[in-house]
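User: Can you help me understand a structure? I only have the sequence.
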Amino acid sequence: MNGSVCGYVVHSVEGTPIRRATVRVLRGPGTRSTTRTVTSDQGAFSLCDLAEGKWFLSATSPEGHSRRASVHVFKNALSELTIEIGQTSDDLAEPKMKTGSVKGRVIDQANSQPIPDVAITVKRSAGPAPDISALTNHDGRFQLDDLPAGECVLKALAPDGATSEITLQVIADTFIKALIKLDDIDHSDLPEID
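Assistant: Let's start by predicting it. Here is the structure, written out as tokens:
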């Protein structure tokens, strides 16, 4: 099953919602039937049935000011996104902040087995980070994109409540590898791994 994106389009200075802004799908890892939508009076929008992966969207205000944004979509999950549009049209310019990505894996410290369904969130970063969490797959793997370059702290939360944090250095335009080890895992709920 595919995932969905919901969010808001707001003025970058006032933070007020922009009604009747057009949100378009520019590109992504698959095709979809609906490629655009219009925001509500509260500036809200939603896009459903998106394949897992990184999607690029654009939002255009009724006055013609635009902003591009990207979001990572996960299977059976809802990703949230706020797109801020400034007072000058930047006509889909890329964000100025340098960003990188993290590819990682979560394992049990006791037996090195992968742990699925662990929520990975950004606890602290060098700048504004995507307000979403990644969920590890059956092999304990996850990916986070568009993280500001610089020091970043990721937090892992297992289904049984076990937590761990890792500090790493995000490098612009680069994939950083991360290994997170969790201890005190309740093994009764974990699937058998061959």
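Now, to help you interpret it: The chain is about 0% helix and 50% strand. The CA atoms of residues 34 and 47 lie 8 Å apart. Let me know which part you'd like to focus on.
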